[in-house]
Queue: 2 jobs
Job 1
Amino acid sequence: MQENEDRAHRETGADWVNQDARSGAPICGPVRYGMIGGGSGAFIGGVHRTAAAIAGNWQLVAGALSSTPDKARASGADIGLPDDRAYGSWMEMLERELLLPPHLRMEAVAIVTPNNVHAAPAIAAMEAGFDVIIDKPLADSLNAAHAISQAASRTGRRIAITHTYTGYGMVKQARDLIASGRFGKVRRVAVKYTQDWLSRAADLDNNKQAAWRVDPSQAGDAGAFGDIGTHAANLVEYVTGERITRLCAELTMLPGRRIDDDGAALFHLSGGGKGTLIASQVLVGDSNDLAISIYCDEAGLHWRQEEPTTLRVGYRDRPTEIWHAGAGRAYLSPATLAVQRTPGGHPEGYLEAFANIYRAFGEHVRGRRADGEPGFATIADALRGMEFLRASLESSRRGGSWVELVEDMSGEQR
Amino acid sequence: MQENEDRAHRETGADWVNQDARSGAPICGPVRYGMIGGGSGAFIGGVHRTAAAIAGNWQLVAGALSSTPDKARASGADIGLPDDRAYGSWMEMLERELLLPPHLRMEAVAIVTPNNVHAAPAIAAMEAGFDVIIDKPLADSLNAAHAISQAASRTGRRIAITHTYTGYGMVKQARDLIASGRFGKVRRVAVKYTQDWLSRAADLDNNKQAAWRVDPSQAGDAGAFGDIGTHAANLVEYVTGERITRLCAELTMLPGRRIDDDGAALFHLSGGGKGTLIASQVLVGDSNDLAISIYCDEAGLHWRQEEPTTLRVGYRDRPTEIWHAGAGRAYLSPATLAVQRTPGGHPEGYLEAFANIYRAFGEHVRGRRADGEPGFATIADALRGMEFLRASLESSRRGGSWVELVEDMSGEQR
Amino acid sequence: MQENEDRAHRETGADWVNQDARSGAPICGPVRYGMIGGGSGAFIGGVHRTAAAIAGNWQLVAGALSSTPDKARASGADIGLPDDRAYGSWMEMLERELLLPPHLRMEAVAIVTPNNVHAAPAIAAMEAGFDVIIDKPLADSLNAAHAISQAASRTGRRIAITHTYTGYGMVKQARDLIASGRFGKVRRVAVKYTQDWLSRAADLDNNKQAAWRVDPSQAGDAGAFGDIGTHAANLVEYVTGERITRLCAELTMLPGRRIDDDGAALFHLSGGGKGTLIASQVLVGDSNDLAISIYCDEAGLHWRQEEPTTLRVGYRDRPTEIWHAGAGRAYLSPATLAVQRTPGGHPEGYLEAFANIYRAFGEHVRGRRADGEPGFATIADALRGMEFLRASLESSRRGGSWVELVEDMSGEQR
Amino acid sequence: MQENEDRAHRETGADWVNQDARSGAPICGPVRYGMIGGGSGAFIGGVHRTAAAIAGNWQLVAGALSSTPDKARASGADIGLPDDRAYGSWMEMLERELLLPPHLRMEAVAIVTPNNVHAAPAIAAMEAGFDVIIDKPLADSLNAAHAISQAASRTGRRIAITHTYTGYGMVKQARDLIASGRFGKVRRVAVKYTQDWLSRAADLDNNKQAAWRVDPSQAGDAGAFGDIGTHAANLVEYVTGERITRLCAELTMLPGRRIDDDGAALFHLSGGGKGTLIASQVLVGDSNDLAISIYCDEAGLHWRQEEPTTLRVGYRDRPTEIWHAGAGRAYLSPATLAVQRTPGGHPEGYLEAFANIYRAFGEHVRGRRADGEPGFATIADALRGMEFLRASLESSRRGGSWVELVEDMSGEQR
């Protein structure tokens, strides 16, 4: 199998050992974290834990895995946490961990609860001095999102939101190619994120994931546009390096539903380009079909999450190119190479992309990654997602009128 | 190589010989036709002639191939027309052909001139008793289109518009699958028709095709939406069996251009489904990328013109299916099988799809094809295209507002 | 639609008019031909006629379409031949056509009979002064093949064998890329030609095509290796520009069959490269799956007949390239561009590839095409195919031993 | 995101806790293991560790990561091992671990050294009472392989060989479909495993991986056939459930090399089917292109490692099917579902396939997995691979003669 000497350190996690960015004290080993949510029966909690394990620079040391104390403790045992760190509630976890000596105490929390239970633990954790990694979307309402944002500013704690798809290497490659300017300006973007797991009325019954996601009191006002439309919008802004400035959206839903399960939008980009976006959870045959085409003056770039290891680049006057992921491929950009774990032809997938988010945020927590894009979605990115959602809902309520997005609600710079 | 006995007649053109549908008189052999336009340097004229040759039930007997008499006559000689039937103008051709005895005289004309030279020869030909096959779009203005339509009604002559893409077998298969109702209702359609041949400012210079297509006085008010957006809209209505009822469109163009070269729309279907449409001639890397996805309650159907021999059908609970074109495939619908010239695995393409339009119209001229869809775009279909274009232009002029389409401008039934 | 001025002549067939290569007399119009075989119920006859029609430089003027006189005459009427040129036998056709004045008389014959009825009419036609285009394989035995070859040498008549697949533009592109030397030497070839139409025992019943192809007395000693293995071998030699020098083959068949329906071989190329070949008519799910990979020192080239408009070129240190067919693509080689009828994105298929063979042989008959590869398979190519078949059968009979191919049985140079 | 309640336990690793299969004593938590080899600069060691982390039922507690004691200890620190368990040699590790109390002591070793350093540590580890997981191929010679096999029999320790590719879910799906008998017997297999990382002479210089792999004293007699041909052969036998009984192989190498870097074979299967195999490390443009087609009486199955989440199944009389990986897909077999970590559309790749091997062997170590195929390659499988290699080398040395494989060299039953 192919080998690159310089890959060895990354693969073996050899760069954990460094100094704390603030105190200068040596910090050894992985970031110790506690998980909030993610007990038995939850999907995304397991994904976070596996991603952290692949990343190699995180160590799960505590958990408050359910809102039901008994279940929380039982779930902790299930995943191998010591009894005394499988807590009955996240409040208990925050309190008790603070009593531990710093070198044992958790350093960060991962929040994988439903959207309406993001803000309270996130804010409390930051107030208690912990960094936070939080499943997207940031919150169930703009108010809650702003409260999280303000807490982060106030406490100076670090925060990441897991927009998984920007963790893929070939997405970074597309971003870098566009940012290089070699292809000129962005003319048009076509993005879709379509699934079919809610395609039938009965999908709302007996499905924990489905239940809260289509319940406005838990998921917020938005369904598919909140759940996956925000991923699509985030991907657009990440890859183009531009902002969605205005849009015209129409959201719909199957009979009997209260929030959107399907919709589409036209949008404008800050650089003058135009775009279309489709987000749906009722389009039969599409499993998790996030796909984006970005047409620039001199090339068209195409990436699809279900075939994540290739990036197609079309030209007018020469053959189409297929760029392949893989450690050691000299033609890939540094940011892309930095997230390749395996040589070309050994496909990496969703869990590795997720791990790249953890890896980058772990390095950030350790005071690394001074240069370039952070490698994870920031609070500013997440607020952009909330604003995209607000504008989409407002546009749709107004019959598909054009609505402007407020550029930066937080006052922070991206 | 595989064989189907019942394909032999179609392949050999053995069914030419039949009776005139009106007079009952026996009519032998292929439909004799004259071509208007399509001289040296024109692309689409050659396509029409090759399509007619593949179809097998047409015979070119006359031509007025250019608006310049000398060039018209020279072009006629070039393609092997006898001198006395290579006319200097279409007026001359109509007059002179009428002087020939009926069994030698041309029976129909094929009009392959720029959009603004469609109406006059079409109307005159029908007045003179000739049937007409005409390159799309029908005309450069709604007025001209209505004039053609009225002439057809008045004279009772037959007329076809060459919306090529509905000639593909797997498009017919998609239509038949949806029409069968087995997949339920149409929820969402995503269609794109994108090219890159006008992606640069210089593409307007020294290119006969480009020149008239981006000149409002020749092409009408619409550029890309007229040239290829109408193909996309026609494909949507053909495959779904529904009508586009309202839309919200935004058309744009490169700096220095006078008519649209790029645009997108949201639209509604008469059955309640929603859709998105992208039409552009400036998206780099896309050659002739007409692609459609139709999501129904129980399946999603996907077809792409550049890979025309397959139809992908996605389901939620069972494997995705790839339906393959090919004579003798028992699982294909009769309408699909009727246009297969070769066994599975022997790909047919654009010219064969075009030939299917000719074949079907030729059979119609001969009084055949009583049942089912006509196999070519009718005047009603063409008027729907004009209305799609009008609504798109109006919506875009009004800043992307929603505009209703008038259901049937002609008073005729589809 | 894109346009290339310089394509007009080719499309319109404007270059028919030229001089006879031998007499210098002006020859106008298409090559007049008569067909032997190809009556009702035959597949390949219709393909030849359509191909000739697409080519544009051929005109069907006579036929002896069946070995049964009544059927021959009826089939002639079916396809629109005048009664006096729908002959009852090929002997009659040769005799009677010679009585016509030269400017009306047919100039060539197309032979589309079963393999065991190739030699007699081919030799007689050449003796009578007609050129010959003949469906592959050349004959049912080496003796018959040599007899045809000797007749061609003796009479000086022109002869072509329709190895269809070398008519595809992207096959020519692969050949030209390899011949340019830019990729170095050929290391390894993997070719397959697999079908499934004989996958069941019952496929031998009630199928005219199947019946003769699996009957040694009509098809010769070889089944699948003769029918399609020779296509694969021809493709290898055409694309690489090398010869298969030795091979080790194992041919098999389903129970109850008398000749091979499946087999594989290892082989050596004259340039030192190695290869594998699979030919089968019993591999379920493969319709007409001719596919070839040619690995050179610096690139790997991949082409598949069922997706004929692209050529994939893989490199070690840069992105994979997809080369696209299409008139006007500046990056394609002249030989490839010369057979493009439509712009990029308007797919051409099997019938157009077949038409390219007719077109090239028609130009050869008219004394054109002095340079480059002939554009059709020559008698030397066909004899190579016979030799490949002989060696494969001998190797298989000897339990998969290695067998040398005689380099050139005819004494002629390729 | 889709959810399956019953996936939760697997994902969270909740089934670690069980009884020791022999003593009946309760065994909690993951299998504690030590690694031999895999220090800085080695690729495959990092893959094993990440795979074990994803599997969730393994815990790295010790290591002897290099044959150089200082480097071994430094590498141990690099990957976070405590100083006292980062040993200077594997002998030291075995000795010292035995001194630890059983509940802390490692239970198994993972051997990731060059092929010629497999046997000694494997045998010593088993003699010392440890289970063994060993990178493929089992050893550098038949003698060494037999010695390992005999040690396993003698000691009763468990042993697994990491033939990664059988860990992919869709490979298991293909196996289960064929084993079900619904498609009839296997007629023909075409398998290839091709890479390009040794395509240039210079690839032997300055590349640790390359150096030992092309050195007979370290890798054994076989190069590409040993390194990846054995993977291909193992995949054939795994998927078909049959054995390769005889073969005819030709191995070659670039000028200046001592062992094969490229080759191909014809082979026979125990059920009567035939096959072709290509294994090469010099085919440019192929990164890690393991691909297999298995043609049965009623279907053809196709899988490719670089697109591992789909299995294509072709039929003669109905549409081709694309089977998709994904937790919760009811149409997949139990063995396939058991290795799905993510819902459909969230691609899993090479590391997850590798993790499946670890997961299964970990369960075996814990006395689980009583039913079905073991989920990892056994010593018998590995000996089959050695025999495949022996026969290939012998056939090639004898000029491509047919050679029989000894069915079972070990006397054990598969």
Job 2
Amino acid sequence: MAPARFARFAVVAPASAPGPWQPIAGGLTAPQGFLAAGITAGLKASGKPDLSLLLAPEGAVCAGSFTTSLVRAACVDLCAERLAASGGLARAVLTNSGQANACTGERGLADSLTATAALAERLGLAAEQVLICSTGVIGVPIPIDTLVAGLDPLVAALARDGGAAAARAILTTDLVEKQIALEANLGGRRVRIGGMAKGSGMIHPTMATMLGYLSCDAGVPAEQWQAMLRRVVERSFNAITVDGDTSTNDTFLAFAAGEPLDPEHVAALEAGLTAVAQHLARAIARDGEGATCLIAVQVEGAVDEAGARAIARTICGSSLVKCAIHGRDPNWGRIVAAAGRAGVPFDPQAVALWLGQHQLMAAGQPLAFDRLAASHYMRDRAAGTYLGSDPASGDTVAIRLVVGAGPGTALAWGCDLSDQYVRINADYTT
Amino acid sequence: MAPARFARFAVVAPASAPGPWQPIAGGLTAPQGFLAAGITAGLKASGKPDLSLLLAPEGAVCAGSFTTSLVRAACVDLCAERLAASGGLARAVLTNSGQANACTGERGLADSLTATAALAERLGLAAEQVLICSTGVIGVPIPIDTLVAGLDPLVAALARDGGAAAARAILTTDLVEKQIALEANLGGRRVRIGGMAKGSGMIHPTMATMLGYLSCDAGVPAEQWQAMLRRVVERSFNAITVDGDTSTNDTFLAFAAGEPLDPEHVAALEAGLTAVAQHLARAIARDGEGATCLIAVQVEGAVDEAGARAIARTICGSSLVKCAIHGRDPNWGRIVAAAGRAGVPFDPQAVALWLGQHQLMAAGQPLAFDRLAASHYMRDRAAGTYLGSDPASGDTVAIRLVVGAGPGTALAWGCDLSDQYVRINADYTT
């Protein structure tokens, strides 16, 4: 039995939307033409919703990103192969929660094929146009008859406002649903982006980790869409870490379908996509097991953006930094030590460091600072009662590290490491 | 204030000595001609011993390994430069505990130079023959006058049996001293190897982590000695992990001085050096903050030894694996998931996995196994009451993972992750 998770928990505030983008209600089905559904098919012993469906409009293109783990689930192989074979054409994605379908051998692939074929028939699609994601316990097969029996009611439930039900049905140990929608007027035309995700970072290998989905009602050619989404994923899902335990099932799927977008608005669209993906990624980090706050690390002055992100993510992933923040302890040596082992060149003599508005280092050397005030900054941040002026929102502890005068800047997100995390993960299956 | 560490704690049993090697009493000063001392100079507020000295016989050669962190302490730079300049000739190493002398700017180097020059004068050596290691809090300068005032009593305390005092004076948050000595008859001649270390793995960036020292009374040419020690370090200190937080000060120094060894015994010597270094490395992992047991992971069948070690070390470093073992939870999916993200190619369909004598996987798929018995294996291991027949000794939880039919085999060591670890590291400086 998993022990109770922290009860006090704030949903991450919507990303401060960039440029023309405004938050709107809804999630995946906010963009025009997208339908979704979520039902209880009986795959989870708990009786919670466990089968989810997203149906994109005709002509949709799809970009996919998948776990880099060598040990990956059958459904991940199937998604990757179908998208590669079709050049990014897909219409529907089925998600079952409860069983990850990883380490299930040949039966795993057979079950993925059965499920997508049965769904394709009901939707009047080719099996190759249907994708499948699975999340749950590793090594346990999907009760495939139960899943197939759930497909008729699932298709019947498809609705214009089905995004919220779909977002609920993909959850496993998550404390909260994670969805968002943004809207912008681009050249006189409304464009909407929706998104949903599940997972508490890369910290549930037995519960199949992170799944992310995005919908957009502007048409973008498949190749361009995939290139955009690669950049978006780097700046969002690939910029979070909870404990570095990459899952066997991590998947992000992004669908676009609609009138073609005027090329002059492509940059604005990418900014909106990035905001949606970053919101979902931050929500996943904030929902990290046992976490009491979000940690945002901005690294500036690195040789390039990838280097800055590597440093930022190493800091976010350091157990010692995470413990220090959990203890509201401004133990800055750990932040610099983590940066030093990130494998990215920089000049230690150029380092400057801030915790919120408190500057802790300049020119590679410690500064005198008010330890108590810095500790209270973290305490108030985590409690959501901080009244200061640093730009991070909500319950976010903000770290800013300058490592030189280079052009590389990047943000990464993580969460603190609590004794609750250990209890949750020590007692999971027994 | 750091909270109390776990009280129940077993010193790691001496490595089962390979071939002709037998454990003997003593540590660094067991080999002939080596002198050592440890005293209280007043560098630590606690009043515990804090200044340590090893003096090697004339003609000694020295091999050094240092942290790969970009942010490294002044003393590390000084050691590395002196050994490079002299081709591995050094006679003495001074160690101060209490202050790490990292992130201390120009003053850090000046203090290292002052300390080694003052000690060299008292020993009748050139400053370049003297090395220095520092361990303690980052960003705080050494009280250099206090250190220099301690040099006369330190040199006066040099003794043939000073190894134990030296081993005590290098400790910071360690719960136990870590020293060992082995002896062998090689071609009718006694050869001895001694060693000492401090640290609880790579988990104390503010307390300057791992220091290791080795002495040997057989003469080996400097280049050959350095090449041997590079292999030894890969198979010992570079095969442990506690939480991946590489320190700014990690240093390993190995001295050899004595009659030249007959070349036919060089392989036997290397086996002894490896056993000493592995003993110290395992003792460091076992002393990991909050740890209740040692974890030993053997990976077999990889493409090469380095690949096997990378997989083994990734498993040892997985927070989820560490939590599962702390909870005595045979949650094998986490072990395979960690292997999958190690960045080393293998065939997931070839994977076989054992926890102690319990086989959990074969041919990439889960086997039915007795969960309770597997859980009790871990419980009894950690309590030191295990009566089974697996080869790991003492309070060691043994994991064996076969990833194919390749020739690469390696061992790595770590420790479990407890809620105590979080409490210790959340409350460290405030």
